[in-house]
Design a protein that fits this description.
The complex is a heterodimer. Chain A is an alpha+beta fold. Chain A has helices at residues 22-29, 74-77, 84-91, 101-114, 120-126, 137-152, and strands spanning 2-7, 10-15, 48-51, 54-57, 70-72. Chain A folds into two domains: 2-77, Beta-grasp domain (Ubiquitin-like (UB roll)), CATH 3.10.20; 84-152, [2Fe-2S]-binding domain (DNA polymerase, domain 1, Orthogonal Bundle). In chain A, α3 packs across α6. Chain B has a domain at 170-272: Enolase-like, domain 1, CATH 3.30.390. In chain B, 31% of the residues lie in helices and 22% in strands. In chain B, a hairpin with a 6-residue loop joins β11 and β12 (215-216). The longest helix of chain B is centred in the C-terminal third of the chain and has 19 residues, at 246-264. The chains are: A alpha+beta, B alpha+beta. Chain A binds chain B through residues 1, 17-19, 21, 40-43, 45, 48, 54-57, 60-62, 64-65, 107, 110-111, 126, 128-130, and chain B through 1-6, 8, 28, 31-32, 35-36, 39, 48, 50, 52, 76, 99-103, 105-106, 180, 182.
């Protein structure tokens, strides 16, 4: 089936089988391999991308469901250098092995869109759909706090 | 995932027709349970009819003595609705406790009710809030809708279009989440109506996550009216699995009842305390 979407600001079209998942469309058809597939069972959140600005798990969404939508992946965040959330993850060492990081960053961007000044508890709840198997959560929360401060002037 | 045909519904009528024409077709709403089930090859529908772009099925509106919520309304839009937060806080609170933010951005009310997972949250709200489940052909009262584990009164080709939740005087929901899945290991919804509007003096208590399907906890309703202690939950279909033995789940139900009641009143009242 044919679909068209705006991927990281660029209109893209594809003709894929109806059962294609959004994660597979992004990785296999469009080569956006920054979107990681961890569990493939909607538990881990590594495949999180933003569809019309909302964080979703792309392994649990059909490519056809994103037809006509605006899709942002980790590759599309830092068009002019690193996005403040990416910068904060780097600065706070909010990653260890880095596998979960694209999903964590995309979920954090959506969290800060909905709640520009989250408390640590709200950050933990806001990232509850993302797992870090290195268990590096403390620095991840610090990173989101720092990004909030840089983007919205939230006191750390 | 087995191959299937994807079709975007143009209207509820055309979706119902497409569903009637093909026994193996299914409707797709949020897909938060359907798609994982298909990926595990537990089911292999021939066709998915996507309802999520039907704007008639989306929205939250106050109408006379109830709130109408469209079947394709996302959990996050119920959770963040200011009118609901004010007048039916239990419902907004419940929607915000489902899954995680990514799930709440996709999952829908109609999908949750049609699936009737014994640990899902929305069935408890529908039962406690005396909901009418509206389909393209009739209205079904919540008391008649839930028929046990994953079973509902829906015909195979029937589509939920919306839900009317009767506005309560007060409402609260308390949930003990499974730490990994986020599903309710016990979830208790308490609603209070004027005595004339519901039996048991206006109190409705619905429990999810504990037994083979959502149920009304009538002993708790009676205890709330009379002011006595609620007796321990007695049922022969309490879920007993690797996550929680039946006795523990029964205990959690009591704790969630107490927690809901504490959220319910400005001050915790002794009459809401559980029997030891």
């Amino acid at each position: 089936m044919k679909l068209t979407l705006t991927l990281n600001g660029t209109p893209r079209s594809a003709d894929v089988p109806d059962r294609t998942l959004l994660a597979d469309l992004l990785r296999d058809t469009f080569g956006m391999t920054g979107t990681h597939v961890g569990c493939d069972t909607s538990q881990c959140g590594c495949c999180t991308v933003n569809v019309d600005d909302q964080a979703v798990k792309s392994c649990t969404m059909l490519a056809m469901q994103a037809d006509g939508c605006k899709v942002t992946t980790i590759e599309g965040l830092g068009a002019n250098g690193l996005h403040p959330v990416q910068q904060a993850f780097s600065q706070c060492h909010g990653l260890q092995c880095g596998f979960c990081t694209p999903g964590m960053v995309m979920a954090s961007v959506d969290l800060l869109r909905r709640n520009p000044k989250p408390t640590p508890a709200q950050i933990a709840e806001g990232l509850s759909g993302n797992l870090c198997r290195c268990t590096g959560y403390v620095n991840i929360i610090h990173a989101v706090q720092l990004a909030s401060q840089v983007m919205h002037g939230n006191a750390p | 995932m087995y191959a299937f045909k994807y079709q975007r519904a143009e209207s509820v009528t055309s979706a119902a027709e497409a569903l009637s024409a093909d026994d193996a077709a299914k409707v797709l709403s949020g897909g938060m349970t359907l798609l994982p089930s298909m990926k595990h090859r537990l089911i292999g529908p021939s066709k998915l009819i996507d309802l999520t772009r039907l704007t008639d099925l989306i929205g939250v509106r106050e109408q006379a003595d109830h709130w109408w919520v469209g079947a394709a309304t996302r959990h996050q839009d119920v959770a963040s609705h200011l009118g609901l937060q004010k007048t039916v806080p239990g419902l907004a609170q419940l929607a915000g406790l489902i899954g995680d933010p990514q799930v709440r951005a996709r999952g829908t009310l109609g999908g949750s009710l049609a699936n009737n997972d014994p640990s899902a949250d929305y069935p408890a709200a529908a039962l406690a809030l005396q909901a009418d489940i509206l389909t393209e052909r009739r209205n079904i009262q919540a008391d008649d809708f839930f028929l046990g584990m994953f079973a509902t009164a829906l015909e195979p080709d029937e589509i939920i279009t919306g839900v009317r939740f009767r506005t309560p005087l007060r409402s609260a929901y308390a949930k003990f989440k499974h730490p990994a899945s986020g599903y309710a290991m016990a979830g208790v919804f308490v609603a209070q109506y004027p005595p004339a509007v519901a039996d048991h003096g206006g109190w409705r208590v619905a429990v999810t996550g504990v037994a083979n399907g959502v149920f009304r906890w009538q002993e708790a309703e009676q205890a709330l009216v009379k002011g006595g202690a609620t007796p321990a939950l007695q049922r022969d279909d309490v879920i007993d699995d690797v996550h929680a033995p039946a006795a523990y789940r029964t205990h959690l139900a009591m704790l969630m009842l107490v927690q809901a009641c504490q959220a319910f009143f400005d001050h915790p009242k002794p009459r809401c305390r559980a029997a030891p």
